[in-house]
Amino acid sequence: METIRRLKVQQGFSADEKLNEKTPVVEQINVIINNAKNLNASDIHIETTRENCIVRYRVNGDLRKVQTIQKFIKNQFITELKRICKFNISSIDTLQDSSVEFKTLQLTIRGSLIPSLYGENIVLRLINQEHQPCLSDIIRKEQEDLSKQVLNKLKRKSGVILLSGATGSGKSTTVYGMLKELDKKIKKVVSIENPVEKRVAGVSQFEVTKKMEFKTILKGVLRHDPDIIFIGEIRDEVSAEIAFQSANTGHLVISTIHANNPSSVVPRLKGLGISEDIVDDSLLLVMSQRLEKLLCACKQIGGQSSEGCKKCHEGVIGRTALFDYLTQEQILAGERYKKFDDTELRSKGIIL
After folding, report:
1. Phi and psi (nearest 5°) for 119?
2. Do 71 and 193 lie in a common domain?
3. Which of 36, 117, 191, 198 is a good FRET partner for 306, with 20 to 30 A between their CA atoms?
4. Whole-model pTM above 0.70?
5. What is the per-residue pLDDT for 8?
6. Would you give the distance in Å from CA 346 to the centre of its chain?
7. Does 163 share its domain with 87?
């Protein structure tokens, strides 16, 4: 188990550096983070109450309580956690964001802190850098038609591929899976992200900051003659305009957008100032993603266990992505998007 070190809050130090004296509280935080990673938790929630702190993990989309931090060490616990996760420990009444990398764990943690009625609430997003699944691992064999569409569109020289879905639905994982499929030996691939979640070999990744704004980065990136541009999210008129302008000038653009389903993406783009003609010419593929819980063999049809086994958590062994999609051809023909029917997966006891 990696020991998490106490840090001086200085730019450039990682969580593997500047080891100070170890304390029981630091060791407690160490256990909390290691256990969360081992359980494949996506987030750690630390919620302060009048009496104590509640620690909860989000596993397979659900929150579950794992620990209570008693009142007499609550303040020390929060202070040490802030130090480890590179929050400003001297500030207790402002919103804060942070990012810290644990190289030994191959884990990046993005933190968010907000003052509450009884103290500071912290949410830590865990980003596992160990393994990035390929597209074939993400898109199930039952959706082979979609897989072929994605691979075909990724070979195009220009256009826009968009992925929509709720927060936490796995959009970033799917996009990084797409980036792995690209032939980066003969293509110049760049990404503009806020923030960069995972490092991808062969991709020039740029992070939006106060000093390096989105438009500034893209202006510089276009001078580097990229073939493919990944824009983290189309969230406003500026990012939408830039994405489609880039596609119209001979670049393949991959991005995400918030929309309920593939059909609602087109009206969303029009609301952001993109004309119907430009959408028709440039939008190659829209995918809408959701995650469903995968049942362990012990809970599937014919399984004997009612409470789960050592390999799962209450019968669930993870989640799988399911997609609805809309191609450029379907848009031009005025057809509805292709919705994935999960009835068979449910009837076979594969998903919950």
Report:
1. 145, -150
2. no
3. 36
4. yes
5. 36
6. 26
7. no
* Cα-based angle 111, 198, 248 (whole degrees, multiple of 5): 115
Sign (positive or negative) of CA dihedral 137, 139, 141, 147: negative
DSSP structure class, residue 336 = P
DSSP 253: E
Q: Which amino acid is at 339?
A: K
Q: At a CB cut-off of 8 Å and minimum separation 6, what does 89 contact?
A: 9, 79, 82, 83
What is the DSSP track for 274-310? --HHHHHHHEEEEEEEEEEEEEPTTTSTT---SS--T
Residue burial 39-76, b: 16+ Cβ < 10 Å; e: rest: bebbbbbbbbeeebbbbbbbbbeeeeebeebeeeebee
> What letter would DSSP give residue 28?
H
Lowest mean per-residue pLDDT among 3-17, 115-129, 164-178: 3-17
Residue 303 in domain: yes
| 140 and 76 co-located in one domain | no
200 token code pair: 């991808």
Range of the domain at 71: 24-128
Phi, psi (5° rounding) for residue 125?
Answer: -90, 125
Q: Looking at the structure, do residues 63 and 199 belong to the same domain, yes or no?
A: no
Q: What is the CATH number of the domain that holds 35?
A: 3.30.450.90
pLDDT score at 185: 92
Which of 64-78, 135-149, 304-318 is the least confident region?
Answer: 304-318
**pLDDT tens-digit map of 64-84:** 999 999 999 999 999 999 999
Q: C-alpha dihedral over 239, 214, 328, 336, to 10 degrees?
A: -50
Tell me, yes or no, whether 121 and 145 share the same domain: no
Q: Is 181 helix (H, G, I), strand (E, B) or coil?
A: helix
| Alpha helices per DSSP H over 95-170 | 135-138, 144-154
On whether both 96 and 143 belong to a single domain, the answer is: no
Q: How far is CA 269 from CA 233, 247, 352, in A?
A: 13, 14, 34
Both 164 and 110 in one domain: the answer is no
CA nearest to 271, candidates 284, 258, 282, 281: 258
Number of domains in the chain: 2
